[in-house]
# Entry
Amino acid sequence: MAPIRSYLDFEKPVAELEAKVEELRAMQAAGNAADIAEDITRLEAKSAQALKDLYGELTPWQKTQVARHPSRPHCLDYIGALIADFVPLAGDRKFGEDAAIVGGFGRFRGESICVIGHEKGSTTESRLKHNFGMARPEGYRKAVRLLDLADRFGIPVLALVDTAGAYPGIDAEERGQAEAIARSTEACLNLGVPNVAVILGEGGSGGAVAIATANRVLMLEHAIYSVISPEGAASILWRDTAKAQEAATSMKITAADLDRFGIVDRIVTEPVGGAHRDPAAAIASAGDAVAAAFGELRGLDRDALRRQRRDKFLAIGRTLE
# Structure
């Protein structure tokens, strides 16, 4: 049985073609029709071309929808496929455990690595457990604990970013959300080991930057990275969330825009139709990009890594117009 797909609104033409293909396949399997293999092949080719054309010219708002697709692979999917012998660590040693940020140590292509990432969850139960990837202060303090361990033992750090932003609840503010984000960002800047960040889906505000202040920042083709969500920007600027599409276009949140501005270092190509259509291929592509990024940093000493990282982020404010 073919997997059940969740289609976005703008994918309706592709959905109709793929539904017709499945209908013909069912007829063929039941033996209730003459040889229709040619019709199936023709429709499959038409559907594939329609998907390619559609995803070749997505608007920023459509990319936002793709970045948020519920079937898009998340942090734990990447860890499961790319990291061997992964051992998660829990707790910030100050308040408690925050499941919105997952972290631990393992091996990436034979080398020791520290992994820190936002986990959104893929089912209702797991989304509630991980708070939809929106971390509280203890999540960022756990990240700092892991960063300090990695730095102490000379282990490179990989950050997997996928969050709408840090959790804005009263309890988080009471426990020092802003300070925790700042400390995590500072810990990233002070690392004497290579660190690479990958924007998997959403990279929202300080909640993303807190673990994405890296020597190399990679971004999946249909991910978004911004100081605030399009809905949040529309609410502030126009007091109307219906203008989110206009905000998404004005904010320059796509990988192509951010690559042009020098905010990200490399765009990781996704399968046609987005990472949710072929998670294994998307994860493999990201793994290759991560390996290449770490390869570029190999041989740099601690001072050189810190200097390169700081210069990279200071240059953003100096060069953007």
